[in-house]
Amino acid sequence: MIIKIQPICKKNKIKKDGLAPIYLRFTYNGEKRYVSTGIYIQAKDWNPDTQRFINENSENEEIRLKIESIRYKYLKRLKQLEALDKEITLDALLDEKKARIATYTVKKCLEQTIKRLETLGKYNSASKHKTALSLFMQFKSTPTRLEEINFQLLEEFELFLIQRGNQSNSIATKFSLLKAAYNKAAEEGKFTPKINPFIKFKVGKLWTPTPKRAISKEDIQRIEQYTPPPRNPYLTLACDIFLFSYYTAGINFGDMARLKQENIAGERLYYTRHKTGKLLSYKLMPKALEIIQRYQNPTSEYLFPILNSSHKTELQKFNRIHKALAKTNKALKQIGEELKIPNKLTTYVARHSYATVLRRAGVATSIISSSLGHSSEKVTQIYLDSFENKQIDEAMQHLV
Fold this sequence. Notes:
It is built from 17 helices and eight strands. The protein is mainly alpha-helical. A three-stranded antiparallel beta sheet has the order 1-2-3, covered by helices on one side. A three-stranded antiparallel beta sheet has the order 6-7-8. Helix 5 crosses helix 7 (168-187) and helix 10 (233-247) packs parallel to helix 14. The longest helix has 26 residues, at 58-83. The termini are far apart. The relative contact order is 0.07.
């Protein structure tokens, strides 16, 4: 038995001007429910026996189409309930919140997360969510409701990623994003999980220690002495970017690309870390100052030739930085191979090497963490906020 949806005119609610409301009558198993359409018509134009307009003129036809459009919305929702193998009841059909919850899928959840991140200008995080969504849709192309996610499905998705050649930490990242989106949707009441599958499926087990990325102080010196061939000027830029990061407390590529002349005050560098919003300041070491002087350009507002005035929006900057980073890392890989440095060179290696060289020199881990601008170590960071710049400046003398 199916639910019948019939438009009716309630003539017992006729107004003084002769207008009467149109309702939709829902009938199922002898039970009837009424929902207002918000549409009013002249009562005299409606046949109560056929529940249709008496005169089918153009004006009434337009109203009829509006009524039918509202009726179609409920018919569509009814088909969704049937497709989801849900129990067909008037409550299920007429409760919009329940209907919305029943169709809240992984795709919709991640797409909304991506849109929110892009609105906030967090394009790097949005890009990671896009990758996670793309992989999940390749794993399971049919719509998957959040309430359908269970331990078995998560294990199957993990196996799918392993078979694709994804490494452990890459897989862990995808699951961390999915878990965060799942929990947020549950907290917002967009669906009601019976059992949270992430309680049993431990995302933490996927993380593995990363291989050694830092290089020695001797290797840093070899990079300093490296003379790139004149036919490839980008090798020179990549080399300078790597060394500048090393000598400025491991500043990451994105923050370096955004540096402007106004970030330099005397011999100090001041900038706000794009990722965390933390304000950082360092005394510029002589070698860092030399690199800045090499790239001084009165026609550009930026210190390095990565961004320019054409990159106005945050999205344009993100796209440009993303492309430039890939090109820089490719150049650094070539430099590392030419110098026979044991570890693959990337901009991240400079940051890691900075921290490792100071640690080997006996500098307190708390000072190193503060200089790196870490925000994930919440308890430590509260304590680190009391350190003055002088302590970091003194620590950085161990880099040479």
